[in-house]
Amino acid sequence: MSKKKKAPIWDGNVRDAALTILLAVDEKQAYSNLLLHQTIEKYHIDAKDRGLLTELTYGTLQYKLTLDYYLEPYVRGKLDTWVRWLLRLSLYQIAYLDKIPDHAAVNEAVEIAKHRARHGGIAATVNGILRSILRNGLRETTDIKDTAQRIAIETSHPEWLVRRYIDGFGVEVTEDMLIENNFPPLQTVRVNATKADTRGGLEALWEEKYAVRRSENVPECLHVIEGQPARSQAFADGIITIQDESSMLPAYALDVQPGMRVYDMCAAPGGKTTHIAEKMNNEGELIATDLHKHKIKLIQENADRLGLSIIKTSVLDGRKATDEFEAASFDRILVDAPCSGLGVIRRKPDIKYTKTEEDFASLHKIQVDLLDAAYELLKPQGKMVYSTCTIDKMENNGTVEAFLAKHPDMQLAPVENAPEAAVGLREEGMMQVFPQQFNSDGFFVASFVKKG
Hints:
- By secondary structure, the chain is an alpha/beta fold.
- It is built from 20 helices and twelve strands.
- Strands 5, 6, 7, 8, 9, 10, 11 and 12 form an eight-stranded mixed sheet that branches. It has a four-stranded antiparallel sheet with strand order 2-3-1-4.
């Protein structure tokens, strides 16, 4: 009989673990949310330390540019990457966390520096910088006269991005959105309508002692105030699934009916796919494709857990879908296109530092190409929905305008059955959800109908 593997040793140094994650994000372009999850699972970190590790990792990433602004007057010469991240991590605790005494944050930073450094001078540098900031106070931002630059520093977003948003949405909306990006996202789940109504989903989670309430916006959405719903029996039984509230809107806009033939072109990991299948009452045919094989597995796992049998998955580049499927053969098509992901910064704070303005043009072309392929597959009088998890106008409104210009027989279609909160979607066929509106991800939806 084989011996069980021993769990990796966890020495309880949450700050050192956070520093390791931050370095991997910086040097290897790793995703912070995946690294954080892997670290928690690998070391079986308990709930208390898990919460602090998450706070330190995300908080330091979210406020990286602000922290650099505070540090700038005290840094002389070049610092090793790990030392700069240690200073940011420690200063985040001083500037933003009330429960950690300032002296404890400094002392812990010095100990980590002693442990990681090849010589004692690094620890002295770290100690000197942090104690100077404690003595003098945090640097003010009120002296920054340029509005975009000030907002960029205060909310820790690249200045070029702030200016782009101000041009598109104005100062007030931009500032509200960027402030909201630095707050933890609300946990939301979707009740599987083929297994329970909203009340049944509530009761299933209440029985397991979860703090949960109804959403005021989307009927099948629940807000989880406390607890990890992915570990619940309700999740295992397929009564609920994890999904952000704003990403539930595409299934409404698609307006599916049982018995239809539906295509979800960029389907992974399957949240919208399974929502569509539920609205079809698991009757009809729902084809879900994605470019990546490992992501197709996620769709199938979600479908199996939720008991949805009408979903058929395959690996396919949506731009080549016309080679696989007959023209004008689908009643409904969802194109949840690859995008910059700027609507999910609160979940993946590293995104805002890695994107460039050049990314938008290449993404825009892919988005239009996907819509062009979907157009060929859509039946006359069929409906198509385009959605993204970004708030960039070029990717959203710009892509819609480019697509409509190429296909005069397509028109934007109002959505009568959209949630009451989605006023713009109901009236105009397009809706931009900002993070501050639903307390959710930034999201865009456009609904089209094919004339003929």
